[in-house]
Amino acid sequence: MDSILDHIKKDLKILFVGFNPSIRSGESGHHYANPNNRFWKILYQSGLTDQIYRTYEDYKLLEIGYGFTNIVSRPTKAADEITKDEYQAGREELMRKIRQYKPKIVCFVGKGVYQEYSKRKVVSWGFQDQSIVPGVTDFVAPSSSGLVRMKLDEIVAIYSLLTAANKTK
């Protein structure tokens, strides 16, 4: 199964980084395509978007300054199928993309994504005190997967911190 295309360009407001595409995303070619994934609803409820986008509209978010990539490009059923070698190669590739495209904020969609990227064991939700790439702000948000046990309103509250930061930039 093929990986899905990044939606990325220079100077994005926010670059969203997931673990890797789901099988459904790999089949459809679109980010956050699993019907149990709450990503699009979270963006809307947090005020990051003014509508609930459909998966196949993912590319349209470039128009409002949001992009998408993953730390690993291979689609899997679950993140625990990703190998250490894939994480290492993905980490290096992600750093290259962030340096090249210089988004204002990189939002890691899942604490584990940021832990793999930063090699930090202790990570809190929200803006990080020290970013990995100078000049780019790191933000850690809960995964939008339906498997996450956090309540939706708690997740939305964390993503809302991005909304507030976006309005001040």
Automatic annotation (TrEMBL):
Transmembrane segments: none
Domain named Uracil-DNA glycosylase-like: residues: 7-151
Keyword Signal: no
GO molecular function annotation: hydrolase activity, acting on glycosyl bonds
Key words of the record: DNA damage, DNA repair, Glycosidase, Hydrolase
Protein EC: 3.2.2.-
InterPro entries named among the record's database cross-references: MUG/TDG, Uracil-DNA_glycosylase-like, Uracil-DNA_glycosylase-like_sf
Entry keyword annotation includes Hydrolase: yes
PANTHER family: G/T AND G/U MISMATCH-SPECIFIC DNA GLYCOSYLASE, G_T MISMATCH-SPECIFIC THYMINE DNA GLYCOSYLASE
Protein name, as recorded: TDG/mug DNA glycosylase family protein
Native species: Peribacillus deserti
